[in-house]
Amino acid sequence: MVELRNVSVTYSNGVDALNDVSLKINDGEFVFVVGKSGAGKSTLIRLLLKEITPSKGRINVNGFDLKRLKKTRAYKLRRTIGFVFQDFKLIDSMDVFDNIAFVLRCTDSSERYIAKRVPYVIKLVGLTEKAHSRPSELSGGEQQRVAIARALVNDPQLIIADEPTGNLDPALSTEIVELLQAINKCGTTVLMVTHEHDLVKNFGGRTISLQDGRVIFDDYLIGDRN
Amino acid sequence: MKISSMNYLFRQGIKNIWTNRIMSVASFCILMVSLLLIGFTSLFIANINSFVGSIENKNEVILFLKDDVTDSDIEQIGVKLNNMDNISEVVFYSKEEAFEEIKKGIENSDELFSYVGEESPLPDSYRVKVEELDTMGSTLMEVRRLNGIDSINAPNDFVSILTDLKKIISIISAVILVSLIIVSLVIISNAERASVDIRKREIAIMKYVGATNAFIKIPFFVEGMTLGILAGGVAAVITIFGYSELASMLMGETTILTAMGISGLISLDEIMWPLVGAYVAIGALISAIGTVMCTRKYVKV
């Protein structure tokens, strides 16, 4: 569960990135967060990952009270979150298997568990045939699938996808959102940040719209596909 | 942290050296040269100190006593000299002994000194050694205040040159050592910074997936300390060979040192293992500090 109560963020240069934002995302929800550049989407993500602390307000993520959570203990929170980057951030010196296993190695998992868990997740995203390919040998859509598998591998409570379709064409974008929705159906909360209104219009669902650091819309949309 | 994770981090650190090989070779070479300079400077200081120490041991001050001193005065002066902190080896030379000594060194002395008669014309004296040349002046002032001391024969000029030389060498050496250590720290820190830049993507991923601070930083330590220990080891081997060659060259029969009667450079057997240990320890320490400097600044978790 994600809950923000009257959260404001003012950066040291005086910019108000978020202004009295309150919202609640329950476990198992799929939420789009939309907004133009400078609306506060990135600040919201940074807050949820405890990269920054709010100037005002309280935040609760997956049972962690972020005001009380020390910076040195932020890794405990991050282990409950899977993060998908817009630019995939795959390591080209590692193959698909090792890119995904990397997360488990970073979180002290045993090699036996890695050997069991990673092929399972690779299968989930439909890349079994490419398990030993390098990221540079994959298409953009496949690379993003690897990134999603990496976010999924440590069985997080929440997946935050930051513009996951930003570098993909419309067909591949649809494929990626479908994959995230399939993951959501298995119980994982998904928060997808995007500026692609067409995509949101197409899929529908709960949509939070930010503008100038404020929530201007938070409701369910009926998608064109429905 | 599990042993398998430690293995993984260790392998990552070693892998970093290869991935970052150009910078690794450069920092290894520069660190090795710095360590060599630090080592040779330290050996130079140690040998100079040993050389000065051997000269200090040979220094002798003669305290001539007044003609009218009684046997009990002589005894009292001896006791007071023995009680002084900076004075060792107090030896009394009677006027007769001194006269005999002079006679021994001259041919036909009996004939030559016949006009003097049997009685020694020389004064009684004490011969003492001053332990710390730096405080020789104040010690001799204290000695001068003793009743019965007529005059003092001390190698004042030589002592002042020697102590000045020691001070100058110590200051220059300290400046060189500190400069070299700072240079080495900057080099290691820069090498690590290059490594951090190369691994920026990995660090970002590690941060977001919940790797601990230690997990992210340990490979940089492994990388830095491996380079430091290797550079220390190679520098130690070069120093041992270089020093033994230098020692045999300087201690040839016709060298100035032999002519000066100096016992030689500090023996290699005496310093070899402490030297290897010091090189490896300094290499590792410089690398550890350099890595801490770099990771604190550039790895924000």
Account of the 3D structure:
The complex is a heterodimer of chains A (226) and B (301). In chain A, a hairpin with a 5-residue loop joins strand 1 and strand 2 (16-25). In chain A, 42% of the residues are buried. Chain A is built from seven helices and ten strands. Chain A is of the alpha/beta class and 226 residues long. Chain A is globular and about 45 Å long. Chain A has a domain at 90-155. With 301 residues, chain B is an alpha+beta fold. Chain B contains eleven helices and four strands. Chain B has helices at residues 3-19, 21-58, 71-83, 95-104, 109-112, 136-144, 156-198, 200-209, 213-250, 256-259, 268-298, and strands spanning 61-65, 87-93, 125-130, 149-153. Chain B has a four-stranded antiparallel beta sheet, sandwiched between helices. In chain B, helix 2 packs across helix 9 and helix 9 (213-250) runs antiparallel to helix 11. The longest helix of chain B has 43 residues, at 156-198. In chain B, 28% of the residues are buried. The A-B interface holds A 49, 72, 74-81, 83, 89, 91, 93, 102-103, 105-108, 110-111, 150, 154 and B 1-2, 4-5, 8, 19, 201-202, 204-213, 215, 301.
